[in-house]
Amino acid sequence: MSCHIKAGQVDRISDLYELAAKLGVQELSIWEGMPKTPEEKLTLIEKEKIVDLYKRINSTPGGPRLFANTYFEGQLLGCMAGRRWLHVAVDGSVRACPYLQESYANIKDSSLKDAWKALRSSGQFEGFVGHCPAQEIFG
Question: What distance in Å separates the CA atoms of residue 10 and residue 90, rounded to the nearest whole number?
């Protein structure tokens, strides 16, 4: 089960988790929603709540596991766009992430391997980045 969370919704994750448990799902994935206004962007306190919830739930036996990109991209692995994954859009354009608009190749014209090489050779996706670049529009 997967959902996107924006500012003001973090306290509802527990309800979603209870629903996931009732339904017998194996994992509840929590993704930070892409804000359309500065007010929709998660606060640092909200991000900390998500990480705390992630650690608490996954340290107990049973129940659905919790995946939280706030933890994985923020603390553990950093932003994975162009580093560990890529996105192929419906028009075939290859991007680092669904939320970043720049295309590095088109799968209709090149192999996935060549598209990955083009993305990686751009030099834009080097090193650890502990935040979501797509959310930088609101600082």
Answer: 30
DSSP string of 42-63, one letter each residue: PPHHHHHHHHHHHHHHHTSSSS
Residues 6+ apart with CB under 8 A from 94: 86, 87, 88, 103, 104, 105, 106, 107, 112, 115, 116, 118, 119
Predicted TM-score (pTM) of this structure: 0.65
Q: For 59-105, how does the pLDDT look when each residue is reduced to its tens digit (9 = 90+)? A: 999 899 998 877 766 667 777 888 888 989 999 999 988 878 899 99
Between CA 126 and CA 2 the distance in angstroms is: 28
Rounded Cα gap, residues 88 and 105, in angstroms: 9
CB 70 within 8 A of CB 79: no
Q: How far apart (Å, rounded) are the C-alpha atoms in residues 108 and 110?
A: 6
